[in-house]
């Protein structure tokens, strides 16, 4: 008798999407093999690199707990001065990667706007350059695992806002 292929256990983020009746597609990209290898997987899946988002945790200048989250294309570079200007803050810094698990509950590479919003309530900002994409991929809370969702539904779910993040 043939064994059934074991389905991977759902992440908390996938459960949140299910609870909110937001359809998604599970995706896997091997970022541990390097950015170039993962981007080849993205292209093989027929997706645009700009629709794959990275989640960056930042610390604002309004105190030691002034955390915020910025999502931008994996191929983009965040401009911290621009983000600070957009948000009316004196400065914005990247959160300490070594402390991410304590700050967000996720390790570096697994941070996701879905879980961070649900469990931490940090404000979520999206790069305005992605506004025209109907769908995007964000981390599903586990390194290499992503979910592809409609951008509009994602932004609504996390109470996100669009700002200028990169040049």
The number of distinct structural domains comes to: 1
Given as residue ranges, the uncertain stretches (5+ residues, pLDDT < 50) are: none
Biggest sheet character: 5 strands, mixed
Care to count the β-strands? 8
SSE order? HEHEEHEHHEEEHE
- Shape assignment: globular
Helix content: 25-40%
Number of helices: 6
InterPro entries: Prolyl-tRNA_editing_YbaK/EbsC, YbaK/aa-tRNA-synt-asso_dom_sf, YbaK/aa-tRNA-synth-assoc-dom
Enzyme class: lyase
Keywords: Lyase, Protein biosynthesis
EC number: 4.2.-.-
Overview of the molecule:
With about 170 residues, this protein is an alpha/beta fold. The chain has a single domain, classed as Alpha-Beta Complex (YbaK protein). The chain is about 30% helix and about 25% strand. Strands 4-2-3-5-8 form a five-stranded mixed β-sheet. A hairpin with a 6-residue loop joins β2 and β3 (about 65-75). The N and C termini lie far apart (about 55 Å). Belongs to the prolyl-tRNA editing family. YbaK/EbsC subfamily. It is an enzyme of class 4 (lyase). Its EC number is 4.2.-.-.
